[in-house]
Amino acid sequence: MLCVQIFEGMHQKNDVIIAGGGLAGLTAAIHLCRAGLKVTLIEKHAYPQHKVCGEYISNEVLPYLRELDADPAILQPSQLNRFEFSSRQGTLISAALPLGGFGLSRYSFDQFLLQKAVAQGCNLVQDTVVSIDNQQEQMEVKTASSGTYTAAYVMGAYGKRSGVDQQLDRQFIKHKSPWLAVKAHYSGDFDPQLVALHHFKGGYCGVSTVEDGLINICYLTNYLSFKPYRSIADFQEQVLYKNPHLKNIFNQCKMQFETPLSIGQISFEKKEAVKNHVLLVGDAAGLIHPLCGNGMSMAILGAKFASSLIIQQIESKSPDRYVLEKGYTLEWNNHFKQRLSMGKHLSAVLQNEFLSSFLTASLARFPFILPHLIKRTHGH
Asked: Which pLDDT belongs to residue 380?
């Protein structure tokens, strides 16, 4: 059934093309198709697949997902309501998560949203987007294998870094980034309601549960810190284990992947919400530092803002692309600019040994500050 829909979708007239099928792209596809629009989603990878991701989602997105008839409760995610932070030396600070959240693997969540999108009539194309161009008010999307697609509107939901960014001449792609991330699932004994963030020299590691009692361990590190070591396992033992909490977690847990997943060139530089008439959503529009643990929620909400504005334009008697793009940029900045800024500043503090020690000591003395910091990177 899915293959038939893919084949038919290659020749239909589209209202919207979505380049990229992660959380933002799939959520947007469901939203737009439910409004009766013709949508083609182009994703280069097959489903399902694991991705390098913290896999913690703030509860701020639940009302929206329920509106889309995409309540993730059916997947039995873990329910997360406590937060724990430790310094490099192991000083531990705990707090309640003001809003709470849930843990769900991208392997399960992306597949779930894909099925919802296809059921709503979204046409899925497994291919690589080569370029996106504006041709006299009609957007043109070229792929590597299946030809060219046209639509009135295009969303870029292709993730942190793509060849499309080079084609669109985006500034951040011209600079190398020093960050890389490593992730794997583990089995073991870990509080199923806890989100932990443990600091180590050169980075920080997030630990929380997902569905089926699995533990997701995902850490971000500076490449210069990682480079001197022979392997991921060697780096973990020589660097992460200096934090006693991380050493304890790794020693008590057993990895369920054959090898950890990793991704490099993660850029936290400022990005545009709109480029060459492409509405950018998710990590393509802006990446919050993983220490804030809210990138998945931002991807889903970004899809909501972009989809709602596109629907308004299509239903308008006098659609105006300028109004759409300005409106989306304002929505993005109003909801996410402060979060991104807070994440950037917190990361800078944690990278500085003196400031990191000062922050940890302050939080230990005044623990009520921590929930306020969390709120600055989460919604309502």
From this structure: 66
